[in-house]
Please model this.
Amino acid sequence: MDAAQLDALIDNPPPQYFPRPQGWDDDDQVRDECGVFGVYGHPEAARLIYLGLYSLQHRGQEGAGIVCADEGALSAHRGVGLVSDVFKPHKLARVKGAQGIGHVRYSTFGNNNLKNVQPLVVDYRSGSMAVAHNGNLVNAGVLRDELEDKGAIFQSTTDSEVILHRISRSDGSTFTECVIEALRDVMGAYSVVIMDGDEIVAARDPYGFRPLWLGKLDDSYIIASETCALDIIDAERVREIAPGEVVTINRNGVHTQRPFDPVVPKQCIFEYIYVSRPDSDIFGASVDEVRKNMGRELARHAPVEADVVMAVPDSSNPAALGYAHESGIPFDMGIIRNHYVGRTFIEPEQGIRDFGVKIKLNPSRSAIAGKRIVLVDDSIVRGTTARKIIKILRSHGAKEIHFRISSPQIVNSCHYGIDTPNPSRLIAHNMTVDEIRDYLGVETLSYLPIDALVAATGGAREHFCLGCFNNDYPTQVPGDFQFRAPHNRHVDHSTELLGQ
Ligand code: AMP
Model:
């Protein structure tokens, strides 16, 4: 495929390669993940959750919500946008109680649609309950069909709602037993916090695709996707919740169990590459340290003579530093990121090309002109960001550009919660490394091999999911299941206004 064909493909995407039914979260944009947070037993639960979500904002910028329980009664506030947009003091004050859960969301179907913003809250025969979920359930379509065939009415298009329906139908004798029964036939990725009026249950799927932490603040317990969210409230890091572990927090304290059949964990290596914050520890290691190691490995694997090492900020900063340390080539901040790009900015209608990337990233001219540059990015997905940045560096006088990627080629989609586009839009699915080099217009291009990536983590290869790099998925994927394409899901425009 040549450059013109690829550009045309990016402008006119073909139908989905994997038959994710229309109406489920299947648009073609690359998005971040989700983040979850929970507090049990603190009078300022809602404020703590707000701060926790603030720290997890990088995991989802499209919607946020908090649900708290006050003497058994749940109250919620959810909205579309960044945490600081959704929660003004008077709105936070309405969410009362000493226990609660919160969520930041990455993906919305179609327009920003409040009905998909989590935590999802429902009333059922035993009271009220709410769920905040990070990950993707691969058999959600089948489970939803089964439930709809029995008359279930769904309020959202998220896979997470299936969990609530299954809890409500479960005949377990405690809330935790109902949750365990509900999760038993659920396949795929979940780091989830679920609450009723009395307790919080946190669970991580047996493969442990997504991170989840248990923390403690004075006498209260905290659940968080990443440690950066424990740090912001000065909570003690108790431990990572283990793959397959279910933790119940209630007035009797913390109770933990491993009710599912054990499997070899398959933690998502892309959490280390891109998703998690560098100041977090996940899967037993510091994200910052692992990313620096990736840069060091990359410098050993693909050395080059150059004047300066630069990152595509911010996610690639540690890997670029690692490359600079290992190679001895000085690091420079050649590209500056604007951190204040909100959801809505006024874009010129015509005449300014590449505006999208320029609003976020701008090169510092003196650092670039006449230089032989090693440019480090953490990943290439569709190749659009890289192509634009490289054009800008060239127009500012870069003499040579040696592009180094601190991950292997992404050749297939993620089914467990990283929203990569369908394979036909992944540049490395369509082109060889040499073709990509020519398409991007760089002197040299190198990716980090899988073995070097794993070595950078300090972990064992069999403990990671590498499916997007090697097609080796630990579970069945949605395309393996027969399920109905949802018909004409309604869109409620009024709920968008509520989110403002
Ligand atoms: P692309 O332009 O599609 O090739 O995207 C590559 C850029 O997006 C890189 O600079 C990455 O840091 C960043 N990136 C990688 N994965 C994701 C993701 N899941 N969500 C958002 N951005 C991503």
